[in-house]
Specification:
- This is DUF6243 family protein.
- It comes from Streptomyces sindenensis.
- By secondary structure, this protein is mainly α.
- The chain is built from three helices and no strands.
- The radius of gyration is 31 Å and the shape is elongated.
- The N and C termini lie far apart (98 Å).
Length: 78
């Protein structure tokens, strides 16, 4: 006899138990924490993009030659 595909009891894991406040749509602290975490992540991504764009627009010099030291430093070395 073939297996029945209509009986899906127990398939798909457990559901989270909702508090009364959650059932009524009041929300929980977990939702607020996720919102705060998402906001922090978006702010960090924005800052990283700004830094990357600034570096792409103004590439820093690779290295300074040794002869470009300030005059006071040249005198101190002698």
């Amino acid at each position: 006899m073939a297996k029945s595909r209509n009986n899906l009891l127990g398939v798909g894991g457990q559901r989270k138990k909702l508090s009364r406040a959650d059932q009524q749509g009041a929300g929980s602290a977990r939702v607020a924490d996720r919102k705060v975490a998402e906001d922090k992540k978006q702010e960090l991504v924005r800052k990283m993009r700004e830094r990357a764009e600034a570096q792409a627009a103004n590439p820093a010099p690779a290295a300074e030659p040794a002869d470009t030291a300030a005059p006071a430093e040249r005198d101190a070395r002698s």
